Amino acid sequence: MQWRSLVIGLVVLRLSVSCVLWLAFGLGPNLSLGFNFHLNFNLHKLDLLFREDKDTESKDNSWSRRIHGPKYEETATTCAKAGGEESSKKSFLRLFDGSKDEYARRYSAFPDALKSKMKEMAREMFYFGYDNYMKYAFPEDELNPIDCEGRGPDVLNPSNININDVLGNYSLTLIDALDTLLVLGNVSEFQRAVKLVIETVSFDKDSTVQVFEANIRILGSLISAHILLTDPKQPFGRVSFEGYDNELLHLAHDLAVRLLPAFEHTDTGIPYPRVNLKTGVPPDSINETCTAGAGSLLVEFGILSRLIGDSTFEWVARRAVRALWSLRSNETGLLGNVINIQTGQWVGKQSGLGAGMDSFYEYLLKSYILFGEKEDYQMFQAAYESIQNHLRRGRDSCNEGEGDPPLYVNVNMYSGEIMNTWIDSLQAFFPGLQVLNGDVDNAICLHAFYYAIWKRFGALPERYNWQLQAPDVLFYPLRPELVESTYLLYQATKNPFYLHVGMDILQSLEQNTKVRCGYATLHHVVEKSKEDRMESFFLSETCKYLYLLFDEDNPLHKSGHKYLFTTEGHIVPIDKRFREKQWDDLFPCEEGALAEPEPNNLSHPSNISNCNRIPVEQRFALPLKSVYMRQIDHMVGLF
């Protein structure tokens, strides 16, 4: 018995010494004995023990220093170069390694039976919202899901732009949901809905609406449904019906004509933000608009022009994009978020990826993919380079090296200096755009950051303060951006991790937002209190992307044809028809197509999936190493 006690004593002594050395210097042996140790220390302060004096770069990419104060700022290094000399024994990241098996176990396999269950859950979610809208709200614009009533414009308070910018008294939710019905395979309901739109919707209304919202939600959906109805390939089955005479296209044209006054009488060509559908621009209209609102019309207006052979709509939309682009900073290449349409002066000098700017970047790339105009991709490539140079903070590589995880912050458009310490939920679209551009590595990291915020709150707060690790603006209106990026990353990687993310989102929505007649906006993501509103994008985007995530055999995935989603999630085919024009170039070369020539090494993105860009082995492991996942979870306050 003595020799057994001696052996046990030596083992205990070895473990004790190893733990002390490991905690103090990171020098202990790699001995886990199958256990995961959950350490909840302030790891950034421990990191100070391991740092050596090093020369720092002239530009500091460490955004977490704002969280941990001046002492950390003076001693911590920033990001290590990818592939450079590693000091893993002395890195605080090593302290996260203990739970890597926990992440691998949680996010590895996703059985087919579970996938089918989640697909059915997403289908039921859509129909619970859609059926109740049709029962209690149609023909009004939106459903109040708590009181089971319809909602239209706030005619008693015209200044209530939160409502009136979106609701135009034109059955918004029905129109916005048309192509989602086809995605779910419900051809008969799609046909019935189309007939209802044709019979009941008119745009001859005394409604003042935001040009951007009417374009992406109404015009985009009408065009998408028309294209799917008349597509000779009929990927969703026989969706056309006898007697259809391009009525949806005529409605789209009528709406676009009513939006055109926004582009008149502006010295810059940048449109007014709002129009009255009967009378044009209101006399008291402001001269300020946001970059996304004015610069995200090209996809819908361009498709309409090419369908009807009238260059007017693409011309005004492209002129607005060019005007905004010409006003970017000469120093940084960045744009601001609010501009005066008469003077061309930037009223809002914040440059970021969220509200006011998001879809401007998105439509530069998507316009190129649809129309093949090189200038669109030249602008996107230059904008993306400026974003990477001035907005991106953190380590150089997503899955390698040391330092903070990559994050895109809000900066001054002229200096590139950080203006505030919050990011907003709309920025969660950006990983999906990065996938489309082939930058899957950066997409994986940014998506993981937003997913960590979702895990903490069961929703995305409208604004999240990364310095305080707390929401700045607490509501969540059922936005789709994180779901969209999750879907596109799964299409690019086929990694089951993203199915788990989708399941988490789906279950959170079901648990936290479901009410008597639909799904309600969260007023407070912590307390889970609700507002009586279900915005139309919940059915047109959130439910659509969730369903597609779990439906591997959907015609969108199996038909062999290529499709693109608009910023409102509407489906348009990548079709050679849209690369053909019945008019000469809108902006001849002598007028100056771009401020700078096309680089010789310009490589255009492929219009197909980026799956082949992902190493095979990465499709069967976590897309982001466990050590980095745990680091992100820690930085948003999950432990």
Low-confidence stretches: 20-59, 68-90, 589-593, 595-601, 606-612
Q: What is the gyration radius calculated from CA atoms?
A: 26 Å
State the total count of DSSP E strands: 20
End-to-end span in angstroms? 43 Å
Give a verbal description of the structure:
Keywords: Calcium, Endoplasmic reticulum, Glycoprotein, Glycosidase, Hydrolase, Membrane, Metal-binding, Signal-anchor, Transmembrane, Transmembrane helix, Unfolded protein response. Its EC number is 3.2.1.-. It is a single-pass type II membrane protein. By secondary structure, the chain is mainly alpha-helical. It has one domain: Glycosyltransferase (Alpha/alpha barrel). The protein has 23 helices and 20 strands. The strands form 9 sheets. The chain has a 3-stranded antiparallel β-sheet with strand order 5-6-7. A 3-stranded antiparallel β-sheet has the order 12-13-14, with no helix packed on it. Mean pLDDT is 85; it is low at 20-59, 68-90, 589-593, 595-601 and 606-612.
Short account of what is shown:
The chain is mainly α and 639 residues long.
What layout of secondary structure does this protein have?
Elements: H1 2-25, H2 43-50, H3 65-75, H4 100-107, H5 112-136, E1 142-144, E2 149-151, H6 161-164, H7 172-176, H8 178-183, H9 187-200, E3 208-210, H10 211-230, H11 247-259, E4 274-276, E5 288-290, H12 291-295, H13 298-308, H14 312-326, E6 338-340, E7 346-348, E8 350-351, H15 358-371, H16 374-390, E9 392-393, E10 407-408, E11 411-412, E12 422-424, H17 430-437, H18 440-457, E13 463-465, E14 470-473, H19 481-493, H20 497-512, E15 514-515, E16 518-519, E17 521-522, E18 530-531, H21 537-550, H22 555-558, E19 563-565, E20 571-573, H23 626-635
Helix pairs in contact: 4-23, 5-20, 5-21, 10-11, 10-13, 13-14, 15-16, 17-18, 17-19, 18-19, 19-20, 19-21
Active site: 213, 358, 462, 481
Enzyme class: hydrolase
Protein name: alpha-1,2-Mannosidase
